[in-house]
Amino acid sequence: MSIQFPNRSRSYSETHHRIQFWGHDQSLEVSFFLEADALERIHPDAAQDEASALRAFDANRTRIEHAAMRLYSRHAHASYTLTARDI
Length: 87
Hints:
By secondary structure, the chain is an alpha+beta fold. The chain has helices at residues 36-42, 50-59, 61-74, and strands spanning 10-13, 18-25, 28-35, 79-82.
């Protein structure tokens, strides 16, 4: 179970106030969702609009991906939601 993040794309859901990004474990694609509270914890001065949220995500991508790796290493699922306590 080794997750990697070769796909740099991400998207913001205004409805759910979260950012989706993807990881890959060999041929398996895994969806990750970063909740707004998690982003606020690591980047408190980021505004809540899409452009600001994506900039904050990009600035903290390494930290977010490490948190996603820790979560994935515990249990393999098709999707995960990262909250403030996961970061």
